[in-house]
Batch of 2 targets.
Target 1
Amino acid sequence: MTELSNSFFSAGPVVLPQGGPLYLQLKRWIEDAIHRGDIGAGDALPSERDLAAKVDVSRVTVRKAVLQLVQDGILVQRHGSGTFVAPQTQRVEQSLSQLTSFTEDMARRGMAVRAEWLDRGIYLPSPEETVILGLSAGDHVARISRLRLTGDMPLAIERASLSAQVLPDPLAIEDSLYRHLDKSGNRPTRAIQRIRAANLDAADAQLLQVAVGSAGLNIERTSYLASGRVIEFTRSIYRGDTYDFVAELRLGDSPTTGSSKT
Ligand code: 16G
């Protein structure tokens, strides 16, 4: 057997947690080691053959356990170089009182941001888009869908709809939608945001690199120009394990809090 990569894997005999199929016992053993800090982000796992020999299980059992841990986002596999403990997800705080763009939010934290385009084009509007964007008969809608990432870590999927009069050429957007809108004087100045808990379906979970059914935040933002015209309707899905939305609350001007005039 070749030398095992991490001292944790080369230490004494392995006692798997009891209960359930063998591959789940092995999975729990690895998860527990990560939680205890015996192996940490970026640490390499031994090869399938070495791990099977160490734990005294078949290679098929190791493969099943590792596959599940990869699907759960706990391990990552890099083609040609092996299997590693996934990087710790860094939580991001976003204020609920400032109308900022994703690019600005990330820049303020010194985080490099990028987008993978899932779709962008001009479409016939859905009834919902017609109502929300206040479109007239014959109007078209520009749709842009992006996976938003920092480094290699996906944070959110954003699907935005705007009137095609406002955004006639979605291909012209570079990094930031709001920067693009700013150029034509169409950057929103106010927005209403609705946030709901959601369990991610298979397609969104795969894009966000988390397990199917993981917790997510479903956010709808309707943004307005100073004139009151709706400029953007965006449905976003944020990974629940990476985002904290923070609101500042102030004591309201209610009759019970005002000072007595007597
Ligand atoms: C934010 C907005 C989204 C907007 C985007 C523009 C939320 C939940 N959503 O992510 O509605 O379209 O910023 O970002 O905050 P960009 O200018 O970087 O493209």
Note: The radius of gyration is 24 Å.
Target 2
Amino acid sequence: MTKATARAYPNMALVKYWGKRDPELMLPLTGSLSMTLDRFATTTSVTRDPDLGGDAFQLNGEPVTGDALRRVTRFLDLVRERSGIREPALVRSRNDGPTAAGLASSASGFAALALAASKAYGLSLDPRDLSRLARRGSGSATRSIVPGMAVWHAGEDDESSFAEPVGAPEIRMIVVVVDAARKEISSREAMRRTALTSPYHRAWAESTEQSLAAMLEACRDEDFTRMGRIAETNALRMHAAILACDPPIRYLEPKSLEVFDAIRALREQGVEVYGTADAGANVVAIARPEDARRVAEALADHGTVTEVGPGPGAELVDEAEADL
Ligand code: DP6
């Protein structure tokens, strides 16, 4: 096959990945855990074309150049190295959700690209190897290969750093978009700055290792309360470490904090719900399925609200229905 199309969904981490042990191999500082979502998909087709002068990349119908194209080319180079096929490719991609606004578009993007590119270049990778490949594009993409709840084992080397499914109680997430603008500082840059300048970097890594172990136990025990508490604390610790950078970085806006307050108010009213936020201003509430509607209604005053559940892993799709 010289062409393949794949779809993947973003994921929202309950225990965050924030820091790299090896930026070349994209080995993370710690393991992490997330839920792959059933909304905001990225669909990507990769077409090998020996007549192209180099790789070309279109996102939502527009040609993309510069750093984003270089990142795609570097990723395709890894695929070409493995397959032995040197041809350049046309990559066409569509994001259903906002791009680079803290809703993990790089996760769905590189997960879809990993599957489409590996097929287009004739590789047949199992989910573990696909997850390892996606990792090289963007750390969080490692987990978007996997359906539903996924743990990314930090691992020791390229072989052992991959994601796999985890059994957990069914949960819902209510995404509250308070700001759909592209974030000013990428996760990659902010992560690097945290490692270099935040005095809380080491504490972050240590506490995240403990949080992941506790989260895996809570998932196994189907203990929603514990899962929610760990997730909220872990997210705020990540933002605390980021705030302490020099120069400082602040992703959370006054509106984001209002959502965290509204979540706490709901808890005081007896609805069990917890908050998390990635590297952006948008906040995600974590609730039991039976409470999701009520939580969504209560948070609707704060931004555009979308209820999401566990979604599928990366999958091949028919080009004809992809509408690229
Ligand atoms: C806050 O995966 O976007 O969403 O590996 O440099 O591409 P790179 O970073 P990226 O970082 C995601 C950070 C996060 C937390 C998480 O998803 O675990």
Note: The longest strand covers residues 42-48.
